[in-house]
Amino acid sequence: MSDEIVKLENIWVKYDGVVVLEDVNLTIESTNFFGIIGPNGGGKTTLLKVLLGLIKPSSGTVKVLGEDPRISRKSIGYVPQHGSFDVNYPISAWEVVMMGRIAKRKIGHRFKEEDKKVAEHSLEVVEMLDFKDRQISKLSGGQQQRIFIARALASNPEMLLLDEPTASVDKHMQTDIFELLKRLSSTIPIIMVSHDVGVMSVYVDSVACLNRKLYYHDSGEITSEMLDEAYGCPVEMIAHGVPHRVFKEHD
Amino acid sequence: MFDILGYDFMVNALIASLLASVACGIIGTYIVTNRIVFVAGGISHASFGGIGMAFYLGIEPLIGALVFALGAAIAIGLVVKKSEQRPDTAIGMIWAVGMAVGVIFKRLTPGYTPDLASFLMGNILIVPTSELIIMVIINVIILITVFLLYKEFMAVSFDEEFASISGLPAFIIYLVMMCLIALTVVALIKMLGVILVIAMLSIPAAIAGNYTHSLKRMMGYSVIITSVCMLLGLGLAVELNQESGAMIVLVAAIIFIISTVSRKLTNYSKSKGVNPS
Q1: Residues on chain B touching A137 (C-beta within 8 angstroms)
Q2: What is the count of structural domains for chain A?
Q3: Which residues are bridge partners to B214 per DSSP?
């Protein structure tokens, strides 16, 4: 495997003639906690779907883990945005994590002892083993998020991909999730998207700003110029520890 | 009341009730938890077209219903997952077109046509042994499929996107589930009719959902609740000389209301007990 976990070259995505992603170029090296920030409607989810091979770009080439994303997505631990699933579904935390093992067994075959061990270990990693029998709706937003991270880990992925992992989480629990991700990022490369610049910028190793175009500095730091370009208006830089602020949305 | 067991048709009715409860409880749980009651309604109403067609062709009505129910199930599956159409609009169309086709076939059928009303509202008292055999076969297919695909159904129901990213053929699994719904509808049509089927595919699972958050237990409870509703409804229908399908649905609805209200009251008094503020 090459060191480049993601290589996007001249990616364009258009829906009905509307340009959602414009000439996006991005290379992400492994052993990295990579953040993609940008306003809502800036194309973050579209970019994730390109990385997962769920959307075929109008033009450009995508390589994830050195392969076509439709092949490599089986090796990606995906943590979807809150709301893409029904939290009232009668399923326990344990059953959710076991879903991470679903593709390891042929259709119609039972789970094996190994699957249970991996699921148990994943729950330990996210410190949720004590909650394994809880129905998913009986957990807080932050606890649910840990369970979905455990599900992603249970598939023994080569990288993690997270869509707005703290969107449904209380402010004081967000730090816990980021601490967890930071810890995980020492063993597995992580890419996450968020509209929330402030808290995330403390934890990620490098960051890109996305608002139709991708603004990225090789240094990996957020510069005020990047934010200006991405958000289309002057944005104050946020210092460590200072509560983040909400950005104005732009069309 | 037990002297009614002396009649053969009553024995068949009881066996049919219990057989229907198994299919109904298991598949009803999937329908309720996946929020696809409207999909099930579309499939059951569309199957009426097949019943009309079967009369026109002079074949077994349940075979016609089966063909149309499976066709509607696959069509709805394609529309919901693969087309740009709004799903509820398309399901509504399939729903009504199936009924229209049924009525037109009835009109085209020369001579005497059996009472189509019994296929709309059902009549559990006229279930012949041949249909019991069809119900047994349908139950076996459902039990085997759900046993084999339990984790796949759960994965696709709970988070289809994650399931397909993991490499599961989510659409095929969804279609298989749609086809099981079609089979269940066919198993229930004779007793409940295309209109009332939807009640027994939703009410018992909804009652079960008041008491458990486990999918497996919800299925088990639903099977038991369905059979209780069926037997009570059937008994009342005979005692009161009433429509069997309608009585079964009313019994289920009353149990649902009692269960839901009593749950609310218990939760309310519990929360008062814990927080006496």
Answers
A1: 213
A2: 1
A3: none
Q: Which two tokens stand for residue A207?
A: 């960051």
For residues A50 and A214, the answer to whether their CB atoms sit within 8 Å is no
B154, B158, B166: residue with CB nearest A103: B166
Q: What pLDDT digit, counting tens, does each position of B126-179 carry?
A: 788 888 999 999 999 999 999 999 999 999 999 999 999 999 999 999 999 999
Q: Contact B188/B20 with Cβ under 8 angstroms?
A: yes
- Which has more pLDDT, A43 or B207? B207
Q: Is A107 on the interface with B (CB under 8 A)?
A: yes
Rounded-to-integer distance, Cα B148 and Cα B154, Å: 12
A positions 40-59 inside 8 Å of B (CB):
52, 54
Name the residue range of residue A8's domain.
Answer: 4-84+140-231
Output the DSSP codes for A35-92. Answer: EEE--TTSSHHHHHHHHTTSS--SEEEEEETTB-HHHHGGGEEEEPPTTSS-TTSS-B
| A71 Cβ under 8 Å from any chain B Cβ | no
Domains and CATH numbers, chain B: 2-195 (1.10.3470.10)
The pLDDT tens digits of the residues spanning A16-56 come to 888 989 999 998 887 678 988 888 888 888 999 999 999 99
CATH number for the domain spanning A209: value is 3.40.50.300
Answer yes or no: is A105 within a domain.
no
Residue A78 forms part of a structural domain = yes
Report the C-alpha gap between B76 and B86 in whole angstroms: 11
Average pLDDT, whole number, for chain A?
A: 84
Q: Which chain B residue has the Cα nearest residue A52? A: B165
Residue A250 within a domain: no
Of A82-96, B21-35, B139-153, minimum mean pLDDT range: A82-96
Query: Is residue B277 very low, low, confident or very high in pLDDT (cuts 50, 70, 90)?
Result: very low
Predicted TM-score (pTM) of this structure: 0.87
Helix segments in chain A, DSSP class H: 44-51, 69-72, 93-98, 113-125, 141-154, 171-184, 197-203, 224-231
Residues of B in contact with A100 (CB under 8 A): 166
CA distance A51 to chain B (A): 11
Size of interface A-B (CB pairs under 8 A): 73
Give the closest-approach CA distance of B31 to chain A in angstroms. Answer: 12
A80 touches chain B (CB under 8 A): yes
For residue B163, the chain A residues in CB contact (below 8 A) are 99, 102
Region of residue B89 (left: phi > 0; alpha: psi -120 to 50; beta: else)? alpha
Q: Answer whether residue A50 is part of any domain.
A: yes
Q: Touching check for A108 and chain B: CB below 8 Å?
A: yes
Rg value, chain B, Cα: 19
Q: Pseudo-torsion of CA B104, B108, B114, B116, nearest 10°?
A: 0
* Pairing mode of beta strands A190-194, A159-163: parallel
The answer to whether A25 contacts chain B (CB < 8 Å) is no
Judge contact between A100 and A150, C-beta under 8 A: yes
